[in-house]
């Protein structure tokens, strides 16, 4: 069975004008929209089995600039082995691999368990950055564009249970102006090398940074998807659910809701309905409570398939200048983060997952933003279990030609144009939004969707580009969470064109660093002026989703000069003074949680140093100041 996902999203010729009339967007997207093939996250149940394919794989680079010159469905050349999950860039002591632009190949042999002869079995890739292909022996069985969401292929008809097959996964890291995130490939003048350029200020790590699975589901009747939308009715909790099953399912659908002790607290039946939990225990920030929403397909009193989803009962809404969780005002403390660590790059690591959440708890952070892409689903599950609030963001970063790597450029071209961010980019962006929400729709920790980070919302064409995408997000989310974008410093309240389309205001501001550098008195006045401008123009809550200063750990200055630990501390203190004067500010997320890797160059020395923790998670002086402030704000002594 061949499943080709996202193949034609980037294949249309851009129209002669940058954008059609806004009312035509919905028709154009609907005409070319591909169905989402993403299914439920694989797990072991009484009717399903799961085999991890993580470990060491054979590895090779494609022929320069041509992924079809060698078929690569035969065995790869001997020599290189690579761990999965991990980015490949920093694994080998080879500059050619570190800087590679184009396709790479992962390969290993896999045996389908012989006990699966009556089952359907699939290969699932949690993420292939930024484009992936799955080959079973000599056959291409799936392709997916988009580097941070999963895709899979049903291989039941290709390999018999008990048989061994060769699994090859091709991964391409190329970015163009029609991908999300965007970029461009330059050919160097003297050597003709292909060099990837991009606008985002984090390293373009690539490869299989998340897990690969072989898993089974029942052959004929199985659960494809579960949607669970929660609500509250007095002391009762409500789960408004929809269950999607395979075609031809004839069994009954039965619902059981279990509390954390395993006691049944609600039951229902049918593919659509409402499960009511009396005396409900709510999911609260810092005090998570999760129910297991168990779905069974039952035929003649036999359970054909079963799957459970962890569900936290809670409500989310915006009211005036407040953000309410369970009808109580919530104030965000926390960070923008990155999936980033030494050697692994963006490779998911359970040890870092647990340690990072320990640091969040230690410092008093109750939230984070998945800047600037969806994180591994294990991160979302951990946030669900530990009561951490998440702003979930798409990979749409770098949609502003006015900046590059965090540093202002000179005389940039227009961002929104047929040669730049265009209708094909928008289609890829819409796909990224739909796939993010399809994956994360049931996570209690997710309280809003961010559809872009720092786009050129001040430029002509921004409204035509973003108006339909805001609607895509609203249409895709059955729970109707708030939708935001994160505003770029150049797009002030005076020139921004799109903020009215969104539910909250999210601001990234660097007064005192990129402007008013080193002069915190001047920076405070500038920050105050802009904040008042946003308040006067919009009656909306404001979250500062980025503010920070690069800091070299161990560098000290009695004058609190830039790059010193003292300056970072005084910089953050200044912002907090301003926040405390404005009741419109309902959140502060420092940039960044930890130092992270970026492109090398004269503007970055071994990465971005705005972390309050070092890359290996040692606290800078500012971490202790934040701990004192945030633990008081959230009521923890």
From TrEMBL:
A GO MF term: hydrolase activity
Keyword list, A-Z: Glycosidase, Hydrolase, Signal
UniProt domain Glycosyl hydrolases family 2 sugar binding: residue ranges: 51-218
Regions that span the bilayer: none
InterPro entries, A to Z: Beta-gal/glucu_dom_sf (IPR036156), Galactose-bd-like_sf (IPR008979), GH (IPR017853), Glyco_hydro_2 (IPR006101), Glyco_hydro_2_AS (IPR023232), Glyco_hydro_2_cat (IPR006103), Glyco_hydro_2_CS (IPR023230), Glyco_hydro_2_N (IPR006104)
Class of the enzyme per the UniProt entry, highest EC level: hydrolase
Secretion signal span: 1-18
Its EC number(s): 3.2.1.31
The protein, known as: Beta-glucuronidase
Organism from which the protein derives: Aspergillus lucknowensis
């Amino acid at each position: 069975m061949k499943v080709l996902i996202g193949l034609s999203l980037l294949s249309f010729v851009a129209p002669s004008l940058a954008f059609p009339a806004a009312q035509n967007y919905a028709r154009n997207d609907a005409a070319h929209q591909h169905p989402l093939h993403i299914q439920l996250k694989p797990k072991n149940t009484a009717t399903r089995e799961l085999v991890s394919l993580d470990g060491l794989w054979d590895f090779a680079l494609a022929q320069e600039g041509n992924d079809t010159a060698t078929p690569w469905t035969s065995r790869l050349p001997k020599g290189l082995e690579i761990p999965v999950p991990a980015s490949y860039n920093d694994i080998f002591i080879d500059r050619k691999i570190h800087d590679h632009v184009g396709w790479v190949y992962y390969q290993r042999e896999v045996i389908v368990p012989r006990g699966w002869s009556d089952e359907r079995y699939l290969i699932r890739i949690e993420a292939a950055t930024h484009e992936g292909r799955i080959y079973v022996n000599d056959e291409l069985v799936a392709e997916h564009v988009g580097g941070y969401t999963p895709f899979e292929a049903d291989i039941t008809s290709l390999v018999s249970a008990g048989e061994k097959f060769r699994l090859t996964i091709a991964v391409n890291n190329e970015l163009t102006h029609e991908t999300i995130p965007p970029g461009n490939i330059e050919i160097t003048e003297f050597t003709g090398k292909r060099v990837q350029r991009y606008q985002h200020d984090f390293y373009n790590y690539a490869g299989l940074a998340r897990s690969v699975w072989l898993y089974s589901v029942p052959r004929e009747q199985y659960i494809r998807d579960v949607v669970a939308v929660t609500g509250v009715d007095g002391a009762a909790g409500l789960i408004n659910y929809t269950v999607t099953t395979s075609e031809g399912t004839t069994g009954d659908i039965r619902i059981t809701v279990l509390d954390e002790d395993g006691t049944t607290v609600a039951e229902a039946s049918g593919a659509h309905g409402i499960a009511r939990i009396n005396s409900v225990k709510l999911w609260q920030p810092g005090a998570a409570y999760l129910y297991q929403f168990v779905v069974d397909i039952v035929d003649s009193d036999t359970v054909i398939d079963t799957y459970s989803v962890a569900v936290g009962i809670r409500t989310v809404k915006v009211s005036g200048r407040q953000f309410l969780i369970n009808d109580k005002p919530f104030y965000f403390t926390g960070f923008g983060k990155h999936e980033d660590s030494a050697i692994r790059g963006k490779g998911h690591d359970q040890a870092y997952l647990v340690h990072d959440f320990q640091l969040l708890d230690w410092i008093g952070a109750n939230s984070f933003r998945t800047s600037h892409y969806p994180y591994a689903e294990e991160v979302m599950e951990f946030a669900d279990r530990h009561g951490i609030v998440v702003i979930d963001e798409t990979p749409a970063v770098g949609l502003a030609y006015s900046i590059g790597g965090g540093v202002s450029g000179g005389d940039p071209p227009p961002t929104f144009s047929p040669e730049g961010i265009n209708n094909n980019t928008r289609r890829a962006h819409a796909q990224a939004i739909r796939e993010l929400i399809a994956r994360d729709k049931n996570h209690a920790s997710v309280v809003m969707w961010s559809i872009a980070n720092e786009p050129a919302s001040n430029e002509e064409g921004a409204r035509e580009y973003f108006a339909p995408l805001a609607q895509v997000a609203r249409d895709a989310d059955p729970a109707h969470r708030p939708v935001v974008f994160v505003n770029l410093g150049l797009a002030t309240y005076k020139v921004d064109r799109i903020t009215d389309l969104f539910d909250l205001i999210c601001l990234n501001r660097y007064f005192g660093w990129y402007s008013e550098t080193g002069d915190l008195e001047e920076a405070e006045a500038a920050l105050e002026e802009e904040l008042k401008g946003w308040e006067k123009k919009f009656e909306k809550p404001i979250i500062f989703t980025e503010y920070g200063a690069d800091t070299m750990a161990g560098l000290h200055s009695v004058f609190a000069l830039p790059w010193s630990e003292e300056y970072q501390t005084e910089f953050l203190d200044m912002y907090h003074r301003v926040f405390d004067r404005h009741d419109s500010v309902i959140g502060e997320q420092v940039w960044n949680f930890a130092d992270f890797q970026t492109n090398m160059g004269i503007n970055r020395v071994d990465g971005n140093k705005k972390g309050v923790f070092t890359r290996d998670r040692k606290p800078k002086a500012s971490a202790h100041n934040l701990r004192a402030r945030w633990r008081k704000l959230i009521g923890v002594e």
